[in-house]
Design goal:
It is a single chain. This protein has helices spanning 17-24, 42-49, 58-63, 65-69, 89-100, 113-116, 144-154, 172-177, 190-204, 246-250, 273-280, 286-296, and strands at 2-6, 28-32, 54-56, 77-81, 105-108, 131-133, 159-163, 165-166, 186-187, 215-220, 240-245, 262-266. With 297 residues, it is α/β, with parallel strands linked by helices. It is globular and about 60 Å long. The protein starts with a strand and ends with a helix. The model is unreliable at 229-234 (pLDDT under 50).
């Protein structure tokens, strides 16, 4: 059996009972480590699961799927995914390959940012298409996300924006020379995301996003809860929610948003009254939030 198991959002204890039972039955267990990350290290996962984990980076998943699926027709093999198994198209591809090889498969679901975004107070059935925002470079500033946000906005729907992470990435020189030298991990911050969104608006000029009137909600480490231990750090890594206009968020220091991973919600212009009230509790400027929210309710 080839299991694809969702791990949830935070730490080793977020796995479901069914998922943990499946992991313990497996001869090999892979941990996918590039579409997202948990907030704890591999050692803690191994101690809790009672299994050694094989890190599956992008190259392994995309180029060595046969190795991952090896003997899965006669043994139990698990592929662990942060969030829910269907949060990335790569995992669907693995399942299709298993199907072609007539390997039995089982999916074990878990929470993901797609549904946990409801912690913002915005109602899940009022969300439209989810988009991804990658780090811009001087030569590459993809803007297809802008069209999806525009389509959502047309119907008053919210947009969940997933912010880029760079794990085990090579710079252009090392990539060109074939050197397996990797850059330090990078995680897009909320201010960077807002800067990039408004930069594309300044280029496209279609009025989809406005710094002073577009409401947004920043999410950090969704699902993380205090450990109960005293922290000597002002930022203990627990969940944070910060709301405001894009300009409000842009003006905040990065420390306000907490540690990565981050996501951003662009609020639709058809806010339900309860959404406005609930999300408004997280606003950096409640008076401004309430004034703008009343125009969209």
């Amino acid at each position: 059996m080839f299991y694809v198991i969702g791990l949830g959002l935070c730490d080793e204890k977020d796995i479901t009972v069914r998922g943990l039972e499946a992991v313990k039955s497996c001869s090999r267990v892979y941990l996918e480590a590039y579409t997202s990350i948990l907030m704890v290290n591999k050692d803690r996962l191994e101690a809790f699961y009672g299994k050694s984990l094989i890190i599956a980076d992008r190259d392994m998943v995309e180029l060595e799927s046969d190795e991952i699926l090896r003997d899965a027709a006669t043994e139990n093999v698990a592929f662990l995914v942060v969030g829910d198994p269907f949060g990335a198209t790569t995992h669907t591809d693995l399942l299709l390959r298993a199907r072609d090889l007539q390997i039995p498969t089982q999916i074990i679901h878990n929470a993901s940012i797609i549904n946990a975004a409801g912690c913002s107070g915005l109602q899940l059935y009022n969300f439209g298409q989810t988009v991804s925002l990658v780090f811009f470079t001087d030569a590459w500033k993809p803007d297809s996300f802008y069209d999806r946000i525009a389509e959502n906005a047309k119907f008053g729907l919210h947009t969940l924006v997933l912010l880029d992470i760079k794990v085990k990435e090579q710079n252009e020189e090392n990539l060109a020379r074939g050197r397996k030298i990797y850059e330090p991990p990078r995680y897009m911050s909320i201010p960077t995301a807002v800067d990039q969104l408004l930069e594309i608006e300044s280029i496209r000029k279609e009025g989809v996003l406005d710094g002073d009137s577009t409401l947004a909600i920043a999410l950090s480490r969704v699902g993380s809860i205090p450990s109960g231990e005293e922290s000597t750090d002002d930022d203990d890594g627990t969940q944070r929610i910060v709301a405001g206009t894009l300009s409000d968020l842009q003006a905040q220091p990065e420390s306000v948003f907490g540690k990565p991973l981050h996501s951003l919600i662009i609020a639709g212009k058809r806010l339900h009254e309860l959404e406005a009230i609930y999300a408004g509790a997280f606003a950096v400027n409640q008076e401004n939030w309430n004034r703008i929210a009343k125009k969209t309710s």
